[in-house]
Amino acid sequence: MDYQPLLDEIAAKVRSEVGRGAVASYIPALACVDIDHFGMAVADVEGRVAGVGDWRRPFSVQSISKLFTLALVLAERKGEREPDTERETEPEGEPGTEDRGSEDIWRRVGREPSGNPFNSLVQLEYEDGIPRNPFINAGSLVVTDRLLTLTGDARGALRAFLRTESCNRTVDFNIAVADSEAEHGHRNAALAHFMADYGNLDNDVADVLAHYFSQCSIEMSCRDLALAAGFLARHGLRGDGSRLLSVRAAKQVNAVMLTCGAYDAAGEFAYRVGLPGKSGVGGGIVAVVPGRCAVAVWSPGIDEQGNSVAGVAALDHFTTLTGWSVF
Ligand code: GLN
Question: Which of 119, 232, 233, 285 has the most CB atoms within 10 Å of its CB?
């Protein structure tokens, strides 16, 4: 399928939405980004990419990184047989059991929408230090902690994965953004210390925070992100055809994206877009059409919930024009 005419049409339709919202200013280094950018890219399951606007321009992925760290943690299924064909039937455990590598993480983080802002502290106390899901900040800190334990270098493992999947060796952290967030990251520090008090972090709080801020500061373009998320469109297969996640685990990640990927606007995102998606306060959103393609969109103006205004509008048009909403 030729995505170019579709992307051109969407770009024309969202022009009036670009510039709406506000750039994230609570991380000072992000406040200087020009709000008028818009880019969108689609990568099909074969790895062919089409794009429009600023689709090759790197931006701060922020919370989109949470999707990839979760996948890398779930990929650690030591000793388990990896099915090597896309649709090979996998051994099912007892109802309710999980893949071995994911057992530990799902004891430490839930998979229900939080209905609260992504950096909220309130739920964490009355739910005993177990974050609602891996895509709010508290949940992602737990995932990063786990990835640090599994790899010894969470940010390095993430960067290596993203470079390989996007076929772009220049994907990297933005140290100034990471430092800026560290300097102003009192809420994230509070969340991490709070969970450490509940025994839900294995590593040193300062180390977990440093890896988390670095992962959020990674800069990628829509092109890079659409390619890197391709494994979710391919039911768990990486770009080279090797398996990252079981078919079942890929389904699970997509499900958590659908229900929790847009924070306390996940319901609205499902209503308008109807695809698994993960957004970041840098203004990026990655969405997945399982079996077909991964889509990435970027426009820095975000709404109160932290989702790109023009990005959501573009994805709304995308599923309306293609009929590819999962609903
Ligand atoms: N680094 C940001 C934070 O922790 C990520 C938040 C986001 O993109 N929603 O606040």
Answer: 285
